Amino acid sequence: MPLLETRGLCKSFGGLKAVNNVSIAVEEGEILGIIGPNGAGKTTLFNTICGVYRPDAGQVMFAGQPIHGLRPNRIARLGIGRTFQASRPFRGLSVEDNVRAAYGVRFHKSWRTLWGAHRADAARRRAMELLEQVGLAHLAGMEAGQLSLGLQRRLEIARALALEPRLLMLDEPAAGISHEEGLQLMDLVRRLRQQGVTVVLIEHNMQMVMNLCDRLVVLSYGEVIAEGKPADIGRHPAVIEAYLGKEVAHA
Amino acid sequence: MVIPAYYITLAIITGIYIILALSLNIITGFAGQPNMGHAAFFGIGAYTHAILTTRFDVSFWLAALAAAVVAGAVGALLGLISLRVREDFLAITTIGINFVVVSVFLYHPFFGQAFGIGGIPMPSLFGRVLDKGGLLVLVLLAVLLVVWISRRVEGSWFGLALESLREDEQAAEAVGVDTRRFKVMAFTLGTSLAGLAGALYASFMSFISPGDFAFSLSITILCMAVVGGLGTIRGPVVGAIILSLAPEMFRFVLDYRLLVYGGLLVVMMRLQPAGLLGRGSFLVRLGQRLLGRRETAPVP
Fold it and tell me: For residue A80, which phi and psi values (nearest 5 degrees)?
């Protein structure tokens, strides 16, 4: 049984079919890359899986349970962590509080724990562990809005990890960051996989996709046009056409 | 020693304003939800208290509790509305609620119309009716209670959830924060404390009328919280003290109150958006420099 599966997922905005009959399966423990030209519907697919949009048709199954139609916070608590394309840390909170806000969700269940102190030692330790993991522990007291874009991305990952997700969905994690930061990010994603986290990522950076992903899904105009191993995808005629256009017959 | 009645009155009014500013702060400061109709909930509390004590002979204590509950219930309703509208529209909706509530007080005979409700008794304790000094003590205890509640909110997972909702609603949802639930909870808690302030006010004034809870009061309360520093506890307390004492010292301002407060809001938003005592404000930085410490780590 795949960890995440979409079956015939559709989402339209007005007349635009942003996601059209998409069926993908993500196996436990793999790193799946979703690529495609701009406007192919990658982020819409993410948002539909995560509950930001309600699908027009189709199903989303997570660990065998249907999750389509649930609110994003429910889906997050079921074990899907995510980051955003334009990074969205809690800008006015400290780096540590960003992680703690996510960690604290486990205390929202009962009235008694909800009123517990969030600066408790156990919560601090856990937040620092997570920050250490992404290399932000030394900036724990800093206001999140002051971090560079690359560091904000890593903070978002630490925040998502605070939920102890089984699946991590990264929306263009390498966009707008330096080459070196990109390498560190790849390292981090590999380490997370070793810890048993399944990863789905949208990425434009081909070098990263080719090196990191076990499998790729290619979207174009909202539809899956190819999927397979990174090495094969580069040679796939439909993919070349989607990225470069059709070859014109020579006269 | 006898404290002149004027000072007792001033202290009671200031205390009530502190409760109002702190209760608004839970909604607007911690949870980041605009509320420009807070006076409506103050009014709902005051009318609930007035009606129960004058017509149904309910004791002060039970009526004050009821005032908090009724105001909180209407606040929960507003919280549910807030789920449907975007921030700027919510601000307008809350203004509308203020006008609707005042109109109901003004036009429905049950609420005494323009005559208001009079003869509201002072609280009595162990069979003795409190005087103004006694009421002042009661108001100060209520202020302490609301400060304590605010501190509990700020330090708890509940407060951190409100802050994450304030900072970025979509990101908060993405990490599992049920933003709808927390919006409704913030509105319920904040408005019920405003209702409690209303009970104290009604008892103190012994006569209330619709004009006491007009939109201009909502702006005054908002102004207190913003000037002091939204999202902190010291901020709304100090803001409420400054803005309730200032008109007493500068009587001439009284006629132009709304103009001055509106102008003050604009100036604060432009120059000190965090408020006088908010995080990173001019005064806080000055204090930190004098004391030689910082609140957050320096930028590397």
Answer: -115, 110
